[in-house]
Structures are given as structure tokens and as C-alpha cells.
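Structure in, sequence out. Go:
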């Protein structure tokens, strides 16, 4: 097995813990894994931003009237957006290297297993969609790949209207933009949204608000990176 990022040969580590069991194969070498920055320590309970307070200022703003009008229960993110992660996501998303996404599978599923054990078994994974135009450019939807890692039924309930890339918009533009999603089905099961990067939270909340309008009782999110 070779590292999906640097192509170095991965030599399995043999120790007393895995000597008599079949360990899961790794997709990255130890040197590349060390360059990841996993989110640790105190964080906002709502969005995973590093925070000494239970809820960061941004999340308090989403709940404008203090009456729980935020459609998103919470987002949990796995990694910080450091230089290594920026390079990997760039090659994964914008240069169409689908296999790079498999590098994150072990971390993404571990986060789900640790943080969302309380979700009902009928919870559905809903990936944030790409527009048809963006899908043609990239060849795959990275959010759908992340959803496939979870032990849940995946349903592509949402469609997206084509528009300017989120990465090119300012924070103010992202928050004030019109809802780019459409949904045609009613949904009466809990949903966990999957996406690669949480930046302002506007994308997830646009999706969550539509799902709630169509009968979804609760909406959560699991994102790979907290930007």
C-alpha cells in the first residue's frame, strides 16, 4: 500500500495490540498524517470553532431572537484548515482527485462514531449538492463521498442552483445570499448533512431550513474541516 498523498510505501506497524488481529489498512503514511491538525480542546458546541465560551459570537447571532430559530442543531468538524489540509482539499475538489477523499475516511467515520451515537438509527445522511455545472467541472461531489463513509442511508434530497463559488465570496456575501437549494420531497426523519468545509455556516443553514420546512424534525452536520 502506498500513501495516497506522497506515494511513499506504507509499512504496517506491528505491535502487541494488532499482532493477532487484522488492522485496518491506512491510506496515508505516518509523516503525512502528522501534518494534519485535528480539532481538539474547547470548542463552540454549535459550530466547532475553537472557543472558551460554550457558544461563539457567530452562533449567538444565528439565534437572533433567542428562541431557537436556528434550523441547525449543531455542526461537528474534524480538522483545522491548515496548510496541509488546504493543499489536499484543493487537489481533491478542484483537480478531480477522487481517491484523495479516501484519506479522510478513517477520521470522518471515527468522528461520527464518537460524536453522534445518540442519533436514531433511521437518521439519513444528506450531502450538500453541487450545481449541474459544477458537477461537470469536478466530476464528483465531495460531500456525497463523505456521506458514503457513514453507516447511514444516503439520500440526495437537495438540488442546487448554479452560482458563484462559495470560496470566492466574502463572509457578508455568503451570509446574505439567497437560498441556493431546492427540495421536492417531504422528510420525517432526522438528517445529518455532510460537507467538506464549515466557514460561515450559511450553506448548512440554507439546507437545514428547507429540510425543516419539509418536515425534518432535526438537522445536524458533520463537516471535515472548520475554516
Amino acid at each position: 500500500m502506498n500513501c495516497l498523498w506522497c506515494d511513499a510505501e506504507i509499512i504496517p506497524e506491528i505491535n502487541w495490540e494488532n499482532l493477532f488481529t487484522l488492522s485496518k489498512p491506512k491510506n496515508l503514511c505516518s509523516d503525512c498524517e502528522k501534518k494534519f491538525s485535528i480539532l481538539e480542546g474547547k470548542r463552540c458546541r454549535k459550530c466547532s470553532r475553537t472557543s472558551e465560551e460554550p457558544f461563539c459570537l457567530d452562533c449567538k447571532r444565528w439565534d437572533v431572537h433567542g428562541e431557537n430559530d436556528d434550523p441547525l442543531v449543531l455542526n461537528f468538524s474534524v480538522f483545522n484548515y491548515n496548510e496541509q489540509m488546504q493543499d489536499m482539499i484543493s487537489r481533491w475538489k478542484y483537480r478531480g482527485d477522487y481517491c484523495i477523499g479516501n484519506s479522510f475516511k478513517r477520521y470522518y467515520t471515527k468522528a461520527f462514531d464518537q460524536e453522534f451515537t445518540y442519533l436514531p438509527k433511521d437518521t439519513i445522511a444528506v450531502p450538500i449538492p453541487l450545481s449541474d455545472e459544477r458537477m461537470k467541472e469536478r466530476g464528483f461531489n465531495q460531500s456525497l463521498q463523505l456521506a458514503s463513509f457513514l453507516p447511514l442511508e444516503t439520500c440526495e434530497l437537495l438540488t442546487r442552483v448554479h452560482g458563484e463559488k462559495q470560496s470566492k465570496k466574502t463572509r457578508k456575501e455568503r451570509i446574505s445570499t439567497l437560498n441556493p437549494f431546492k427540495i421536492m420531497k417531504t422528510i420525517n426523519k432526522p438528517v445529518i448533512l455532510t460537507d467538506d468545509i464549515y466557514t460561515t455556516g450559511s450553506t448548512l443553514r440554507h439546507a437545514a431550513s428547507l429540510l425543516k420546512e419539509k418536515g425534518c424534525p432535526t438537522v445536524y452536520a458533520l463537516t471535515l474541516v472548520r475554516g
